[in-house]
Every structure is written in structure tokens, then in C-alpha cells.
Specification:
mainly alpha; two-stranded parallel sheet
Amino acid sequence: MSDRSWETHGHATNPAFEETALHVFVEKSDREFFTHTKSNRNVPQVCIDPAVLPDASSANLPLARPGRCQAPLKDLPEERVHSMLEAAAQFRLQQKANRIRNKIDSHGRDQALFQEIAAALGYKENKLPFTLIAQRLPLKLLHDKPDDGEAMLFGLAGFLEAPDLSVFKRSTREYVRKLWDRWWPHRDKMQRMILPAKVWRLTGTRPVNHPQRRLGALSTLAREWRAFRRAMGKTIAGDPASQSSSVARPLASRASNFFSGLDHPFWKYHYTLTAEASPKA
């Protein structure tokens, strides 16, 4: 929330913040700080004092409006409301379980899990393009072409369409060149499956969650898939006992340890393909 958070969060080198009109913060640092975009455009600043904000804005707060559930639930006893919410949650989970089961029946456990992880990496804004990529580049194909998998993911995503390497920073050119050299033999054959730029939502995304960086994470996971399966043990294989909370807790710990150990020489220090290298992204 300080003025220098603009720099530490990587906004100054992120093209997604190029059109920023105003930088609002609540803490001003001792030394003067200028907010600038990737093209070095100066952004006007406004420092807000939280101590006076409530009094100044209280009259402008919109009125809270009841939702559609308020009327049918307002006269029910609390226990009944809790019961209904629990039933609704169980119904939603069952629907999701059925959807995943159908996907497993159609594509197998590994591919179903790969697609679900890809969709999760896309968050709400980019769930669709990540799902399409996982469908069009199934895990088996990535394993059959281990040296080309990462390049195929970025190429199919439409992130390798710029033919001129001069648009990339010096620290990025070697990486992009390697991706392009691996991608172009597949490009003509996969041309019709390349995602158009309009399907991606790049604005309003924190630098660490940029789709390009998360696609790098997906490629790393695909490369380490067998180690991932071993780390997860029987749970991914469908062991019914894995449904219990006593198994779920250590599973979560193993998953956390596995993902924390993943590494990538480029994406460890970059937020996007066009961003400057950071001490640690």
C-alpha cells in the first residue's frame, strides 16, 4: 500500500499497467518516488490518509441491498439455514465430482487431472484458454516430445507470434529463441489450434499470476509429472481411503512440498516474456 509497492510488485515493467491513469496509495516513503510505466511514462500520484477516509466517504457509501436468497431464508431458524447451506455445498461438490468422473472415463486419470490443474492455473479470468491448451496439448503428447513440450505450450497459447526478437529484453531473447526454434517445426501443423490474443485477459492481473508465468509453471509440472504422481501416492490413483481427512492433511503437505520444489531458470526471475529480470519473481 506504499508508493514504492508499485516497483516491488513489478508494475513498472509489466505492460499490463501501461495504461494506468492514477496511482493511489496510503503510505508515502521518506524518499521521493516517481510512478512510471514500462515505457517510462510518469503516472500521477494520490496519497490518501486512511484516518480521514471514513469521515470523508461515509456519505457516499452505497446502500447494502439484500440478495435473492434473503427473502426465503429470513424467517427460517438458524439451524435450518445451516442445513440448507450444507446441502447446497454437498450438491455442488457432487456435481463437480460427476464432471471430473466423466472426464476421467473419457480421457483417463492423468489427463483429467492435468486439465483440472491447468484450469486452476488460469484462475477465473483465464480458465478457458488454459483448459483449451490442456485439451489441445494432452499430457501424453507433451511426454512424447519432452524437448518440445514447453515451446509447444507457449506457441499454442499464441505467445510466440512476434517474429522480431528485438521486442524482447536482452535477458529474454535467448529463452524466446530456444522456444521459437523448438516451436516452428510444429507451427504449420498446429496453426489452426493457436489461441487468438483476444481470449487472454491480461489486465488486472498481479505480475506473479501473469498467464505467461503460470504457463511456465504448467510446462514444468508436465515435465515433472511422474515425480508429481509419486509424491501424491495412491490418492491420485483413486484410493477410496484418500477421501478421509486423516489422509487429506498429509496429502496437502506433500503437494505443498512438491510444488515448492519446482524450479525454472527463466520464470524464477521473470513475470512475463517482455518484463525485465527481477531478483526473484
